[in-house]
């Protein structure tokens, strides 16, 4: 079974840039073209946010973009339809769907996995699906469709639990950078954040680790890369798209600001 | 064990559970591991019972409402939760949870509120115990329940407006959960209803169970039997109903009647009657009946009563509805207003708009003259006077 996460890591073992966009934002049919633009500009992994009316773990930016996307008419069904065929234009980039559990359950977990798999999606992040429920009820379905779950880890997560979550996937682990929501300012206590990232690094886990929440610019991206395999940026990118005359140009410029041209990324030794 | 007690993972039948993001896991896990031990601790019980008696004013009376009885053609008892300190049953839960928070070593308390009664009850116990208090309230609810906003501020709480979505109870709960995610170590979230992730529905139900414990004793003193024919209570999230039903759940002779807010009517798009309009789904960490569209987006409910204006119900109530243990009725804004006036004029008791829904249900129940009905009068109506005067055109 193809594992695009492992393939990516073999090509490029560090400083992976994972970008998140809300599907259906800024305009209803922007999703697939924006994903292509972001990949061409240098994103290594792409997360496609499924908008939800009540995104509990998200800060104001993603709350706002989700509300706009829903007003635009985005639905999970429409998104899955739009994603069919995306592998013709993005054959290698790992693609994830990130969203809340309720819309997925209304479509039906099996049906969701089937359509996501047909589109060539690699992984799924459902923050309100606890690992225990996943293991008991959905792991078989995910495996059957070659989908990998991504679990969140926080500074409060115990070592035993981190190891359990590490066993449950072979995509990557999502290290929430500190207390707070997506888009928050997590850089306030750099010392505590670095200590946490080092602590998890020292566990020698099976999976690569990507840092998310509050990663907003070149400095915080590079900081996160020091003790992890890369980082995830969502809210800051969406802010850059907000009101942009040309979202594609804004997206390109944003990626340039994080990682000025591919050549400056650390060489693979 | 009773089928109405949750399983180890917090399920009542297919409803319940704990669908929370990992950021909340340590907090919820800590609570789950400790709440039963703390509630059973003799030291906790001594303090809790003393506060219920001397601070809340329990037991609250069970009042035989003669003129309402005549009007409805059955014997109606009102369980006077409106006489609790702060004016509603909500304080039973907050007194217990503040003692729990102290034992968990928490310094900062957050809460959500709809009608403001839970917010006031939380602000009250925080003042009593000297803990910081932040209450999230929908901006729409702050406008329609102004007296309670003023009371919370007088008590020293900070009231933060929830401005997303329909700006009501659901959105206030979202904001409270987001606050808890952002403050994972020093904060306890006092949820006001039997909603949220396990163990909250069970915790709040146990702390409200004092209502039915007292009803049984008081009814025996008055009638010789602990068992009425009906127990009637309104349901938003369902905490007062859970408390009034709790010690009757395993008494099949007692019919439990849960009264939801129909808003403009269950056949309109302005309603909050979740058991009629909802399908199984996930809200605020719990699998329950939920008002949602075909794509799984949560829809905005409507009720004139801020305390019932919620698109879900507690998982216990979803199970009671699904298993038909309780009968669910829905009452429109209009009928609730009429019932509030009726109770005011026949008994000299101005009920909260929420409780007025339960009173209105007596009209549509098929009561016999021999029936004994206990109606949980969950709160008093001071907070609703502006609405009453305007809607009943009394000014």
What order do the helices and strands come in, and which of them pair?
The complex is a heterodimer of chains A (269) and B (395).
Chain A: H1 4-11, E1 16-22, H2 31-41, E2 45-49, H3 60-72, H4 76-83, H5 86-89, E3 95-98, H6 101-107, H7 109-119, E4 123-125, H8 131-144, E5 148-149, E6 152-153, H9 159-167, E7 173-176, H10 190-201, E8 209-212, H11 218-225, E9 230-233, H12 235-241, H13 247-258
Parallel strand pairs in A: 1-2, 1-9, 2-3, 3-4, 4-5, 6-7, 7-8, 8-9
Chain B: E1 11-12, E2 15-16, H1 25-40, H2 42-56, E3 62-64, H3 66-72, E4 75-80, H4 90-103, E5 108-113, H5 117-129, E6 132-138, H6 139-144, H7 146-154, E7 158-162, H8 169-182, E8 187-189, H9 200-208, H10 210-223, E9 230-234, H11 239-245, E10 255-263, H12 274-277, E11 279-283, E12 286-290, H13 315-322, E13 326-332, H14 333-347, H15 353-364, E14 372-377, H16 385-391
Parallel strand pairs in B: 4-14, 5-6, 5-8, 6-7, 9-10, 9-14, 10-13
Antiparallel strand pairs in B: 1-2, 3-4, 11-12
Radius of gyration of chain A: 17 Å
What is the overall pLDDT average of chain A? 94
Structural class of chain B: alpha/beta
CATH architecture of chain A: Alpha-Beta Barrel
Q: What is the radius of gyration of chain B?
A: 19 Å
Number of helices of chain A: 13
Largest interface (CB < 8 Å): A-B, 39 and 35 residues
Mean pLDDT of chain B, nearest integer?
A: 97
Number of domains of chain B: 2
Spatial shape of chain B: globular
The CA-CA distance between the termini of chain A, in Å, is 28 Å
- Strand fraction band of chain A? 5-15%
- CATH top level assignment of the largest domain in chain B: Alpha Beta
**Protein structure class of chain A:** alpha/beta
Residue runs with pLDDT of under 50 for 5 or more positions of chain A: 263-269
Roughly how many Å apart are the termini of chain B?
A: 54 Å
Tell me the β content of chain B.
Answer: 15-25%
Q: Strand tally of chain A, please?
A: 9
Order of helices and strands of chain A: HEHEHHHEHHEHEEHEHEHEHH
Please give the oligomerization state of what you see.
Answer: heterodimer
């Amino acid at each position: 079974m193809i594992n695009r996460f492992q393939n990516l890591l073999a090509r490029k073992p560090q400083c992976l840039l994972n970008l998140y966009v809300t599907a259906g934002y800024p305009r209803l049919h922007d999703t697939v073209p924006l994903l292509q633009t972001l990949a061409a500009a240098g994103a290594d992994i792409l997360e496609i946010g499924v908008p939800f009316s009540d995104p509990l773990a998200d800060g104001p930016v993603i709350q706002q973009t989700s509300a706009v996307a829903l007003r635009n008419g985005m639905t999970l069904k429409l998104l899955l339809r739009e994603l069919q065929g995306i592998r013709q234009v993005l054959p290698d980039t790992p693609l994830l769907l990130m969203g809340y559990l309720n819309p997925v359950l209304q479509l039906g977990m099996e049906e969701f996995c089937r359509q996501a798999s047909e589109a060539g999606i690699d992984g799924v992040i459902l923050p309100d699906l606890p690992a225990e429920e996943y293991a008991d009820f959905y792991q078989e379905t995910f495996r059957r469709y070659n989908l990998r779950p991504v679990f969140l880890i926080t500074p409060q997560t115990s070592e035993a639990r981190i190891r359990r979550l590490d066993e449950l996937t072979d995509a990557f682990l999502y290290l929430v950078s500190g207390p707070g929501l997506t888009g928050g300012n997590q850089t306030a206590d750099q010392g505590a954040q670095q200590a946490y990232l080092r602590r998890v690094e020292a566990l020698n886990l099976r999976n690569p680790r990507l840092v998310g929440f509050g990663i907003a610019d070149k400095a915080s991206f590079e900081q996160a890369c020091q003790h992890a395999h890369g980082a995830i940026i969502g809210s800051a990118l969406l802010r850059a798209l907000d009101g942009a005359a040309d979202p594609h140009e804004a997206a390109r410029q944003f990626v340039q600001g994080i990682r000025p041209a591919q050549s400056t990324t650390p060489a693979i030794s | 064990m009773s089928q109405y007690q949750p399983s180890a993972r917090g399920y009542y039948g297919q409803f319940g559970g704990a669908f929370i993001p990992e950021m909340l896991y340590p907090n919820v896990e800590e609570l789950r591991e400790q709440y039963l031990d703390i509630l059973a601790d003799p030291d906790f019980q001594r303090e809790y019972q003393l506060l219920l008696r001397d601070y809340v004013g329990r037991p609250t009376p069970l009042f035989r409402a003669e003129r309402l009885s005549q009007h409805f053609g059955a014997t109606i008892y009102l369980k006077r939760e409106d006489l609790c300190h702060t004016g509603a049953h909500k304080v039973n839960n907050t007194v217990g949870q503040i003692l729990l928070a102290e034992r968990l070593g928490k310094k900062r308390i957050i809460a959500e509120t709809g009608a403001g009664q839970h917010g006031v009850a939380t602000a009250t116990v925080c003042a009593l115990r000297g803990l910081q208090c932040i209450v999230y309230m929908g901006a729409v609810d702050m406008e329609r329940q102004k007296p309670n906003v003023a009371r919370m501020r007088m008590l020293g709480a900070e009231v933060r407006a929830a401005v997303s979505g329909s700006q009501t109870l659901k959105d206030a709960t979202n904001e409270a959960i987001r606050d808890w995610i952002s403050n994972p170590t020093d904060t306890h979230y006092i949820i006001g209803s039997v909603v949220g992730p396990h163990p909250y529905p069970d915790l709040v139900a146990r702390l409200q169970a004092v209502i039915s414990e007292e009803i049984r004793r008081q009814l025996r003193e008055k009638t010789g039997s602990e068992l009425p024919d009906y127990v009637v209570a309104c349901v938003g999230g369902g905490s007062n109903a859970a408390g009034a039903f709790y010690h009757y759940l395993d008494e099949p002779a007692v019919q439990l009647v849960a009264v939801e807010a129909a808003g403009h009517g269950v056949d309109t798009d302005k309603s909050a009657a979740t058991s009629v309009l909802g399908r199984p789904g996930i809200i605020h960490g719990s699998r329950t009946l939920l008002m949602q569209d075909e794509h799984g987006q949560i829809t905005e409910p409507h009720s004139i009563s801020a305390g019932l204006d919620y698109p879900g119900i507690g998982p216990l109530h979803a199970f009671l509805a699904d298993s038909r243990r309780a009968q669910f009725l829905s009452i429109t804004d209009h009928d609730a207003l009429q019932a509030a006036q009726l109770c005011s004029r026949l008994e000299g008791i101005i009920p909260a708009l929420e409780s007025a829904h339960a009173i209105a249900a007596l009209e549509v129940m098929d009561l016999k003259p021999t029936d004994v009905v206990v109606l949980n009068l969950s709160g008093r109506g001071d907070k609703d006077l502006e609405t009453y005067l305007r809607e009943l055109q009394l000014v």
